[in-house]
Automatic annotation (TrEMBL):
Boundaries of every Guanylate cyclase domain copy: 477-634
BP GO terms, sorted: cyclic nucleotide biosynthetic process; intracellular signal transduction
TPR repeats: 741-774
Protein name (database record): Guanylate cyclase domain-containing protein
CDD domains: CHD
Keyword Transmembrane set for record: yes
Annotated keywords: Membrane, TPR repeat, Transmembrane, Transmembrane helix
InterPro entries: A/G_cyclase (IPR001054), Nucleotide_cyclase (IPR029787), TPR_rpt (IPR019734)
SUPFAM superfamilies named in the record: Nucleotide cyclase (SSF55073), Voltage-gated potassium channels (SSF81324)
PROSITE patterns assigned: GUANYLATE_CYCLASE_2, TPR
Pfam family, one: Guanylate_cyc
């Protein structure tokens, strides 16, 4: 896909057109790797500047990568707790190390802000941009080298009261800054979640083949993304407002209460120059020096009297926030507040964790119901529609998945780490989802494999429905099967004939689908089954087909087609639902010894796959002389007295081991064809088939068996000819045909082809003595007899078929 650069801002029409092309390309996977961002607009990327565009794409991949998100989360977590850890667990001597780490974090946050602004234009000056900016600036109070000079704080200052006010304001301000950093953590957790959801899921199918599915763990839908972002913003703003403004309603925020340290110092001032002054001073020291907040320094100057008292802890060893300085006219006292600061830091850690939990819980719970009731069903619908668009034949499988468990039930199975009791509820979204799947399943049933391209094309391109598309040339095997004596059966069964036909159709469709076939036409008493080759299976789609022998499918598909029809012959003589018609009184009265019989024809060649009809009614099918040939072969089975005829083109693509299960019946010339047609059959005498259990598989079970069989064949775990050797049904069909019979028939066919008809007569008579009612042998004997067992003078090994 190529995009043309335009100078200036793009027009709305051009944006719409390019956006549509981009969306279609993204659906087809052509530019998924190039534009991985959901919100990235094509007009945000300078198309004319390939180097800049490439840099932006690479930068986006780095910023949205799993590793980057994890590293960023760890750094942010440290930034949340580092200052509290510094105060509660370390001494002042370690401050410089923490300041250094905080400086590095500030630099990293700043770089992240810049890079995101460059890579994501929808990020600039948006909600999260300002939060990230505040988060970055909130690191500054943790850097004492910068923050203390900015506030003009001097640890050697004697202005104790100002220090108290400063400490109080800083503590209150840090509450909001920490919450801003928490917001950043929540966003990073969300980025990790979105990244995981956008990753390509590698799914191992039951057949062992690994496929990539971009929609199994889908990217968020637009409505889901918008709803989640709006809810998250509101939760964040609400928490920020609460944490920021609640302290403003506390008296401690405005007034520093006077405590015993200040009252005691006032008493000392009052006793200056009076008797008992030393007792008051010593009592003040004794009372406070062993307190939880001990007095560590006292000094006063009164006239010529200078006095200083200290303890083991020097004031310079404490941080500004760990000292409470009390001053009066002539005196100064310093109190050790490490107990308070340590407790405050520990409580801050707990508060930070609590706010994280509240934010997470609020973000999840606020969006949970909306996601369960609306977003998840919509995303599930979109995912399934895309799946159906890529392969409409998946619609049936989607329908079976919906029957087992609704999307709402899946969404409600688990919340966070808690199992939740699910209650099945049919909401409108669930009803809509089920309806879409049912419509898709009906489309797949109505159009079949031949119509999958019509469905997929119309679902992907949007706009008006265009059912009549240009056909495509494909290579396939065409199997035509017909119910014998159908006119008489219909007249006798009347309304029940629909049940009769559908019971046979179920058997035919189930067996052929399991063996890689696809039902195409249901024409009353006849069915067209197609086994289609892929482009990689065929070297040349012509007459004849040239298959790619390096393709596994090309080596086994014809074998499976033959096996399908042989199994159908066995099952219509075995299934109780079909056998019951042998005892139907009306059918027996009209056709004594009635049994359901079918004729089959198999041919291989090319055809045009597409839609036939108009906007009022279409049928998805295959058109070519090769499709018609399968029908003529089925009709010709009546001449040779066999249930199944194979063309030479089909016989040639069978594996050599399966060709041994076939015999050459004749070589004929058919009107409308300029080359002889070789006819083969795979003998099937149902006399030895014993009644058994009916075929009872639903579509889901059949799909699993088909997938498992395909996997084994593709991996070489089994060979297609082994399916013939291991089948009890195939053995029973072949049991009546002995080695001696085949040997006599083979020699007779060689003599017949070479023109030695007297010799052929002898071998055919020997074959008939072994199997008196063999249709092909009797047919050829009648041909020999018509010519007095002498080959025509112009005999070339084939004859014109007399289609009376």
């Amino acid at each position: 896909m190529y995009l043309t650069a335009h100078q200036g801002s793009p027009s709305s029409d051009m944006q719409s057109a390019v956006s549509q092309d981009l969306e279609n390309a993204m659906k087809s996977g052509e530019i998924f790797e190039t534009f991985p961002l959901d919100n990235q607009s094509i007009f945000d990327i300078p198309i004319s500047s390939s180097s800049k565009s490439s840099f932006t794409v690479i930068l986006n991949r780095i910023l949205d990568s799993h590793v980057y998100s994890i590293v960023m989360s760890l750094i942010t977590i440290w930034a949340l707790f580092s200052d509290d850890i510094r105060v509660s667990a370390c001494t002042k001597s370690a401050d410089n190390y923490f300041y250094g780490v905080s400086t590095a974090i500030f630099s990293y946050f700043s770089l992240d802000l810049i890079l995101n602004s460059i890579a994501k234009k929808d990020y600039r000056f948006a909600f999260y941009f300002w939060l990230d900016l505040l988060s970055t600036l909130s690191v500054l109070p943790d850097i004492g080298w910068i923050w203390n000079p900015m506030l003009g704080i001097d640890s050697s200052s004697d202005d104790g009261q100002s220090k108290v006010k400063y400490t109080k304001s800083v503590n209150q301000g840090n509450q909001a800054s920490r919450i801003v950093r928490i917001v950043r953590l929540i966003r990073l957790i969300r980025i990790v979640k979105l990244y995981k959801n956008a990753r390509i899921a590698m799914i191992e199918e039951e057949d062992g083949t690994v496929h990539t599915e971009t929609d199994m763990i889908p990217r968020e839908s637009r409505v889901g993304k918008k709803l989640s972002e709006l809810t998250m913003k509101r939760v964040i703003i609400l928490v920020l407002i609460l944490i920021t403004f609640i302290p403003l309603f506390s008296l401690d925020f405005y007034i520093t209460p006077k405590r015993s340290w200040g009252f005691g110092l006032d008493t000392i001032e009052d006793f200056f120059g009076q008797d008992g002054f030393e007792n008051v001073r010593d009592e003040y020291i004794d009372y406070h020096k062993d307190d939880l907040r001990p007095l560590i320094y006292l000094t006063y100057t009164y006239g010529t009297d200078n006095y200083t008292w200290t303890c083991d802890t020097h004031p310079d060893d404490l941080r500004d926030t760990e000292k409470y300085v009390v001053t009066d006219t002539h005196s100064l006292a310093i109190i050790d507040l490490r107990f308070d600061t340590h407790l405050d830091s520990e409580l801050n850690i707990c508060k930070t964790i609590f706010v994280c939990i509240v934010l997470l819980f609020g973000a999840f719970t606020f969006t949970k119901d909306a996601e369960d009731l609306v977003v998840f069903p919509i995303e599930s619908m979109i995912r399934k529609i895309k799946k159906i668009a890529r392969n409409p034949l998946n619609a049936g499988m989607q329908s079976s998945e919906n029957r087992s468990e609704s999307s709402l039930d899946k969404a409600k199975k688990k919340f966070l780490c808690f199992n939740r009791k699910t209650v099945k509820a049919e909401y409108e979204t669930t009803l809509l989802e089920n309806t879409i799947i049912k419509i898709g399943a009906l489309l797949a049933l109505g159009f079949g494999e031949a119509g999958s391209k019509i469905i997929a094309t119309n679902m992907e391109k949007g706009g008006d429905v265009d059912p009549v598309l240009q056909g495509s040339k494909v290579a396939a095997i065409y199997g035509f099967c017909d119910i014998r004596n159908f006119t008489d059966t219909t007249e006798e069964l009347q309304e029940s004939v629909m049940v009769f036909v559908n019971e046979i159709a179920y058997l035919v469709h189930t067996v052929t689908h399991q063996l890689m076939g696809a039902a195409n036409k249901n024409i009353g008493d006849a069915f067209l089954i197609v086994w289609k080759f892929g482009e990689e299976d065929v070297i040349e789609i012509n007459d004849p087909l040239v298959l790619n022998k390096n393709s596994k499918k090309a080596t086994y598909l014809a074998d499976l087609a033959l096996l399908s029809f042989l199994k159908i012959i066995a099952k219509i003589n075995k299934d109780p639902r079909i056998l019951k018609y042998r005892t139907h009184s009306k059918l027996i009265k009209r056709m004594p010894n009635y049994a359901v019989k079918m004729g089959f024809g198999l041919h291989a060649g090319w055809s045009i796959e597409g839609a036939i009809g108009s906007e009022f009614k279409i049928d998805a099918s295959y058109l070519s002389p090769h499709v018609n040939m399968s029908g003529r072969l089925e009709e010709t089975t009546k001449i040779y007295g066999v249930p199944l005829l194979l063309s030479g083109a089909f016989f040639d693509i069978l594996s050599s081991r399966v060709q041994e299960y076939c015999r050459h019946l004749d070589t004929i010339m058919i009107k409308g064809h300029n080359s002889p047609l070789r006819l083969y059959t795979s003998d099937a005498d149902p006399t030895n088939i014993t009644p058994g259990d009916g075929l009872d598989k639903n579509k889901e079970q059949t799909n699993r068996l088909r997938k498992a069989l395909k996997g084994k064949l593709e991996r070489g775990q089994i060979e297609s000819w082994e399916l013939f050797e291991d089948s009890r049904e195939i053995y029973s069909l072949k049991e009546a045909f002995t080695v001696d019979f085949y040997e006599n028939y083979r020699k007779g066919m060689i003599a017949y082809t070479e023109g030695s008809w007297q010799e052929a007569k002898s071998y055919f008579e020997s074959a008939l003595r072994i199997k008196p009612n063999d249709g092909p042998t009797m047919t050829l004997m009648s041909v020999l007899k018509e010519n007095n067992f002498e080959a025509p003078t112009d005999w070339e090994g084939y004859r014109e078929l007399n289609e009376k």
